[in-house]
Amino acid sequence: MEVNRIDPDETKRLLDADEGYRYLDVRTREEFAAGHIPGAASIPVRHKNPDGPGLLPNPDFVEQVKEQFPPDTKLIVGCLRGGRSLAASRMLIAAGYTEIVDMRGGYDGELDASGNCVFPGWVRRDLPTTTD
After folding, report:
1. How many CB atoms lie within 10 A of CB 118?
2. Backbone phi, psi, residue 7, to 5°
3. CA–CA dist 53, 40 (Å, integer)
4. How far is CA 85 from CA 14, 51, 60, 78, 89, in A?
5. Confidence of residue 18 (pLDDT cuts 50, 70, 90)
6. pTM of the prediction?
7. Mean pLDDT over all residues of the chain?
8. Residue 48 forms beta bridges with which residues?
9. What is the dihedral sign for C-alpha 117, 43, 58, 29?
10. Catalytic residue at 117?
11. Distance between CA 101 and CA 26 in Å, rounded?
12. Which of 29, 100, 117, 123 could form a disulfide with 109, with the two C-beta atoms 3.0–4.6 Å apart?
C-alpha cells in the first residue's frame, strides 16, 4: 500500500492552515517528552524495551489511535527519522484510516550509514518545538 509522504515544511503548512490536520507522534514516550511538535498527540508504535536495548512493538497501537481519532481524521504521522511513522501509517491505512500522511525525515532527520543527515527533519529545519 502506498503512503503519501510530505516533508516537514509541508507538514507545518498543513498544520498552520487550519484544514483539520492533526499530528500523531509515534515515538516513545521518552522521546516525545524530550521535545515534540506543538499540539502533537503521542501514541507510540513501539516502546522502550524494559529488559535491554531496542524497542518492542506496541500491540495496542491501532486500538489506541482508534480511541482518540475516528478513521476519517486527517492525520500526519511522524517519528524520529521516518521509519516508524511509515510503518505506523501503513498499519493505520490497513485498519481503515483514509486521511493518512507520513512526514518524511521525522523529528530529527534521515541519516546515512555514516550517521550524516541526508534529509533534515523538523528540528533541523528550525521549526517550532515544545516539551509541554
Report:
1. 11
2. -90, 170
3. 26
4. 17, 24, 16, 5, 6
5. confident
6. 0.96
7. 97
8. 55
9. positive
10. no
11. 13
12. 117
Angle, CA 50 vertex, CA 132 and CA 104 arms, to 5°:
50
**C-alpha atoms less than 13 angstroms from C-alpha of 59 in its C-beta half-sphere:** 0
The amino acid present at 92, given as its one-letter code, is L
Write down all domains in the chain, each with its CATH number in brackets.
4-125 (3.40.250.10)
Q: What b/e string do you get for 16-55 counting C-beta neighbours within 10 Å, with b at 16 or more?
A: eeeeebbbbbbbbeebbeeebbeebbebbbbeeeeeeeee
* Amino acid in position 53: P
Q: How far is the C-alpha of 106 from the C-alpha of 78, rounded, in Å?
A: 5
Q: Tell me the one-letter amino acid at 30.
A: E
Taking the alpha carbons at both ends of the chain, their separation in whole angstroms is 35
